[in-house]
């Protein structure tokens, strides 16, 4: 019995942080989500270019489409709040108001991206700690002309 425990000791030490600190991976997922989808209000929305954005982010290169959310980060986070205090956990939630969205779609030629600007409602997956971890869907309310 002692030899079994001795052999599993290193494995348990590696997995221990996952049990003791379950929120740490969730925080990383939230940070990764924001890195991939958030556009700062410090940028001029009308001047943003999908070719520029998709080309500068290594993890987006060659991707057929991607959606960016133009908002204050806390407005995105607030979608996962149920009533201002409690958070939705491990559930999909639609925003109550539309956000400025920049959708980038790869051109048929494969050379560059088409910019599609809109006001859209967004559906986020709120993770186990109640933070947005993925963008699930969008519903366009109104297109914004370029």
Overview of the molecule:
The chain is of the alpha+beta class. The chain has one domain: Ribonuclease A-like domain (P-30 Protein). The chain is globular.
Summarize the topology.
Layout: H1 2-20, H2 22-37, E1 38-39, H3 50-56, E2 65-70, H4 73-77, E3 91-94, E4 99-106, E5 113-126, E6 132-144
Parallel strand pairs: 1-2
Antiparallel strand pairs: 2-4, 3-5, 4-5, 5-6
Helix pairs in contact: 1-2
Describe the structure using short key phrases.
146 residues; alpha+beta; P-30 Protein; 6 strands
In short:
This is Ribonuclease A-domain domain-containing protein. The protein is α+β, with helices and mostly antiparallel strands and 146 residues long.
Global morphology = globular
SSE arrangement, N to C:
HHEHEHEEEE
Number of helices: 4
Whole-angstrom Rg: 19 Å
Structural class: alpha+beta
Q: Point out poorly predicted stretches.
A: 1-24
| Biggest sheet character | 6 strands, mixed
